[in-house]
Amino acid sequence: MANLDSLTSWHADWSGLKVAVFGLGVTGFSVADTLVELGVVTLVIANKADPQRADLLGVIGAGLVIEADPDSVPAELVELAPDLVVVSPGYRLDHALVAWAESRGIPLWGDIELAWRLRDRSGVTAPWIAVTGTNGKTTTVQLTTHLLVAAGHRAVSVGNIGTPVLDAIRDPEGYAALVVELSSFQLHWLRRSGPGSLEPLASACLNVADDHLDWHGSREAYAEAKATVYANTRVACVYNRDDEATMHMVEEAEVQEGCRAIGFGLGAPGQSDFGMVGDIVLDRAFLPDRNNVALELTTHGELDKVGLAAPHMVANVLAAAALARAFGVSVESVRAGLTTFRVDRHRTEPVVFVDEVLWVDDSKATNSHAADAALSSFESVVWIVGGLLKGTELGPLVDKHAKRLRGVVIIGANRQPVVEAFARHAPMVPVFEVTATETKDVMPEAVRFAVSVAGRGDVVLLAPAAASMDQFTDYADRGNRFAAAVHELTGGTDDHDSPAASLPTAPA
Question: Could you tell me the CATH number of the domain that includes residue 70?
Answer without folding.
Answer: 3.40.50.720
